Amino acid sequence: MAQQGASLQNYNNELVKCIEDLKEKREEVNRGIVKEEEEKNKIQNDLRMLTERLSRINDGIARKIASRNEYDKTIMETEAAYMKILESSQTLLHVLKRESVNLTKKKQSSK
Fold first, then answer.
1. Mean residue pLDDT across the chain
2. How does DSSP assign 49-107, residue by residue?
């Protein structure tokens, strides 16, 4: 009977040791979970901040594109007006030269 009691005690000791080993492995897995959850939270926070930053940058780009388009429009309109002024100046110069020649001819013919 004493031998059976010793065997039962050995089984009990092994069972307790196995349970302790399982608890240690569980705790190791739990520490891994906690660590990865912390990393996940940090990544989610970084992602939120980057998403907000990207949104602000996109808004800035959109405003700058609109501003650039306004500059392009103003430049085109100004260049078109300037070309009309040049054409008018050229026409005026041509008319002035022609009138000058006509006046010179009239002046010479009246002498």
1. 94
2. HHHHHHHHHHHHHHHHHHHHHHHHHHHHHHHHHHHHHHHHHHHHHHHHHHHHHHHHHHH
